[in-house]
Write a sequence for this structure.
């Protein structure tokens, strides 16, 4: 791990530090004494940076921005890590098995991936969240905890075909390599070949995409909030963005904080993904 | 088998694939309605007497099983009936005219973005490739990588607050139809187009740069240079064309992502396109309309990608050989 960090260029190092900081805020942020993210300060509406009591200022509604960034990190990164982790696990398992078995199973799986990928990922997520988050009484919206779960489910469905297709493609390049053919001809069981020979070789390709996928999910969470189906009544980065988007005509300065936090996080994810992919190419080149 | 029949069969196979994906994705969206935690009857049947209820249930095909429900929808869809908004009074407001008004606005936005993005990224891609490895290339390339990672709504909000509110060069909200003054129309589209174009420019420039660098190593480029052709002439006539296949393919394939992007951008800038219609359909719980909107996006995306695939095969023989091998 330390080795990996030492190999990074400056930008990747900064990205790793930023992601570590955000993750730490998500996990331990509740220990920091901050105002309640959902309690507005009637004295300070749209306060600027470094105003008393509000380090990053407040938005037009008087909500403390720092507290929302810290507490929002928990929701947003929870959504991102769970849906990417779970979607990546399911997607790559299905993709690897389909590519290894070939034949009808592969046809069904890859057609399934193509079907899900034929709907632009934001539209797919939007449709899933909109349908699943319908409450029986329009005047009583669904509680924000349940919304978070629904968004995780929807974005997992979005991630599965993306990772699945990459895992399938990567597996196809390995199944005819000499050592796999040799293992098969020596009578090694399919399950062992996949676990011992395929998975370790496919994983590096998946790791780099996982970071990109975290970026995709963070963007999607923001976009869903802007479209009114995110964790709108809760505390998340997307909810912050949606709030400031409605207020930017009269409180533009409070917009910069959530916008910069989201942008930096997505840039960091892409940078780390790019770094891992570069390492992968190096490794391939040595073979 | 001669090559023409071979080509024909390849196209036919591609068409069959496209049909399978279209049926699959529309069926998927249709089945989605069965996942609603609320019954469709509770949402859309408002008549109080039993006879009226039965009438409405039959009219909306709510008594059909999921597969039949899909087939009814598909039958209507291919005949140009995209379903209706159902109001509590029992009034049906057809989707088709709303779609007819909204879709051209979104398409216009996407086309403007493509034009602007290509117009900027082609010279920029050639320049960075030509200066590859030097400081100007490094600075631009790093900047573009960063720009490509920033979500378009971030650009949208920054542009709206800076050029729309602080400087007031462009209207920060709203849409003017081209019929009501073309200059005003362009002004109202400027910020949304920029918000979508900046990340797109970044992606396209990176693609073109890679291909131009590869082409510059070709022998015929050295040959052209040794014959004394000017750099400009070599870059734009001998290098650009063979290097641009990846760029134009990805630009075409990027349509789907851009349509997804317009949903959010339209919402931010209050542009009455498809995104706003979808937002409205979700807000007012009109899932029949949502079904048709999502289906149209999916079909458009799949058909467009298919056409691009086949077209690239015709334009660039190398990709054809690869796919036949």
């Amino acid at each position: 791990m330390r080795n990996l960090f030492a190999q990074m260029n400056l930008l990747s190092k900064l990205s790793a530090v930023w992601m570590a900081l955000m993750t730490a805020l998500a996990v331990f942020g509740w220990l920091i004494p901050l105002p309640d993210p959902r309690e507005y300060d009637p004295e300070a509406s749209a306060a600027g940076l470094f105003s008393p009591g509000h380090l990053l200022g407040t938005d037009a509604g008087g909500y403390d921005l720092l507290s929302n960034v810290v507490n929002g990190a928990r929701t947003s990164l929870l959504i991102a890590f769970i849906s990417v982790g779970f979607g990546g696990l399911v997607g790559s398992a299905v993709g690897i098995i389909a590519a290894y078995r070939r034949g009808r199973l592969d046809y069904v799986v890859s057609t399934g991936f193509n079907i899900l990928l034929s709907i632009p990922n934001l539209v797919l997520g939007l449709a899933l969240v909109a349908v699943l988050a319908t409450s029986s009484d329009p005047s009583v919206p669904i509680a924000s905890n349940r919304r978070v779960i629904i968004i995780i489910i929807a974005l997992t469905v979005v991630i599965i075909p993306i990772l699945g297709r990459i895992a399938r493609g990567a597996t196809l390049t390995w199944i005819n390599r000499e050592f796999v053919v040799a293992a098969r001809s020596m009578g090694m069981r399919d399950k062992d070949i996949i676990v011992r020979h395929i998975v370790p070789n496919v994983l590096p390709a998946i790791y780099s995409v996982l970071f990109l996928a975290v970026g995709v999910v963070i963007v999607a969470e923001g976009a869903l909030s802007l479209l009114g189906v995110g964790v709108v009544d809760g505390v998340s980065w997307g909810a912050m963005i949606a709030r400031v988007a409605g207020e930017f005509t009269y409180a533009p300065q409070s917009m910069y904080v959530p916008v910069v936090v989201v942008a930096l996080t997505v840039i960091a994810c892409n940078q780390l993904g790019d770094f891992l992919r570069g390492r992968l190419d190096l490794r391939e080149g040595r073979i | 088998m001669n090559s023409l029949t071979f080509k024909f069969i390849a196209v036919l196979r591609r068409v069959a694939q496209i049909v399978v994906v279209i049926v699959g994705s529309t069926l998927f969206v249709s089945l989605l309605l069965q996942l609603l935690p609320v019954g469709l009857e509770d949402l859309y049947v408002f008549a109080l007497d039993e006879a009226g209820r039965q009438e409405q249930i039959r009219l909306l095909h709510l008594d059909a099983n999921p597969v039949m429900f899909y087939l009814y929808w598909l039958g209507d869809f291919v005949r140009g009936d995209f379903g209706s908004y159902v109001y509590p009074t029992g009034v049906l407001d057809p989707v088709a005219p709303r779609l007819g008004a909204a879709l051209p606005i979104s398409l216009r936005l996407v086309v403007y973005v493509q034009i602007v993005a290509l117009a900027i990224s082609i010279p920029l891609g050639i320049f960075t490739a030509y200066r590859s490895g030097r400081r100007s290339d490094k600075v631009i390339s790093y900047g573009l990588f960063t720009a490509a990672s920033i979500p378009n709504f971030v650009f949208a909000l920054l542009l709206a607050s800076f050029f729309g509110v602080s400087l007031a060069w462009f209207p920060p909200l709203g849409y003017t139809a081209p019929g009501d003054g073309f200059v005003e129309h362009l002004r109202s589209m400027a910020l949304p187009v920029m918000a979508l174009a900046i990340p797109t420019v970044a992606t396209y420039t990176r693609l073109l740069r890679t291909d131009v660098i590869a082409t510059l190593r070709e022998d015929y480029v050295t040959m052209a240079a040794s014959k004394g052709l000017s750099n400009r002439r070599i870059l734009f006539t001998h290098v650009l064309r063979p290097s641009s296949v990846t760029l134009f393919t990805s630009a075409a394939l990027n349509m789907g992502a851009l349509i997804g992007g317009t949903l959010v951008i339209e919402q931010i800038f209050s542009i009455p396109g498809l995104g706003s219609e979808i937002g409205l359909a979700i807000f007012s719980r009109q899932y029949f309309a949502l079904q048709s909107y999502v289906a149209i996006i999916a079909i458009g995306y799949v058909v467009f990608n298919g056409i691009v695939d086949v077209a690239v095969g015709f334009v660039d023989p190398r990709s054809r050989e690869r796919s036949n091998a």
Notes: Chain A touches chain B through 47 residues (CB under 8 Å).
